[in-house]
Amino acid sequence: MPETPRLSIIIPTLDEAATIEELLTRLTPWEADGVEILVVDGGSLDDTVSRARPLATRVLRRASGRARQMNAGAREARGRHLLFLHADTRLPPRADLSIASALSGQCVWGRFDVRLEGRHPLLPVIAGAMNLRSRLTGIATGDQGLFMTREAFDAAGGFPDQPLMEDIEMSRRLKRQSPPACLRARVTTSGRRWAREGVWRTLLLMWRLRWRYWRGASADVLAREYRHVR
C-alpha cells in the first residue's frame, strides 16, 4: 500500500461476527490499490475482533458509540478521503474510484444511493424514497455510505458525540461546505432490521424520530425512546 492511502474505509462494529468476514473479504483486495481498511470495535462480546484482524488493515478497540467509534477511526486513518461504512452494507464495484471522481470537483462530501436487501415488496419503494429524499434535502444517512475529504471532516468537527441522528447532524455540517455528491451507484444494506421489527412499524418510527429531531428534540431523549421501542 502507498505510504499515504488515497482512501480510508472506517467500519464501526459491535457484535458483527456474522457479517464482518464477508464484508472484509470483499474489501481486502482494494488494499493493493491504496485503500486502508480500519475496523473500530466498540466492545463486541462475540468474536468480531478476532475475525476482523486477519483481514483489515488495522483493528481498533474504542469506547462504544457509533459516532465515537467513527471519530476514533478518522483520527487514526491516514487516507486523503474517508468513507464511513456500516458492517452490514456492501459497496458497489470499484466504489473507491467513484469516490475519488466525486471528490475531484467542487463537492467535498457525498453518499451513494441505497438498496435494501430483503424480500418484502415495500423495501424497493422505501429505498427509492430514501434516495429521493436525500437528493432533495442534501441529508444523507449512514446506510448510504457517507464519504468526504479529510479536510471536510476536520472542518465539520467530526461526527457529533450523540447516540442517534449523528449522520443527520453531520450532513448538516457538511452542507455548509458544499452540496453532496449523490452517486446513483447503489450500496446494498441489510433489511434485517426491517424484517425483524416490521416494515410499517420501522418506517413510522423512523419518520417520527426524524420529525421530532427536526423540531429540536434531544438526540439523547430520542435514543432512549428508540431503544425502548425496539
UniProtKB/TrEMBL annotation:
Subcellular location: Cell membrane
Domain of life: Bacteria
Record keywords: Cell membrane, Glycosyltransferase, Membrane, Transferase
Residue stretches making up the Glycosyltransferase 2-like domain: 8-119
InterPro entries: Glyco_trans_2-like, Nucleotide-diphossugar_trans, Trfase_2_rSAM/seldom_assoc
Residues passing through the membrane, by range: none
Keyword Acetylation: no
CDD domains to which the protein is assigned, alphabetical: GT_2_like_a
Cited SUPFAM superfamilies: Nucleotide-diphospho-sugar transferases
Name of this chain's protein: TIGR04283 family arsenosugar biosynthesis glycosyltransferase
Organism placement in taxonomy: Bacteria, Pseudomonadati, Pseudomonadota, Gammaproteobacteria, Oceanospirillales
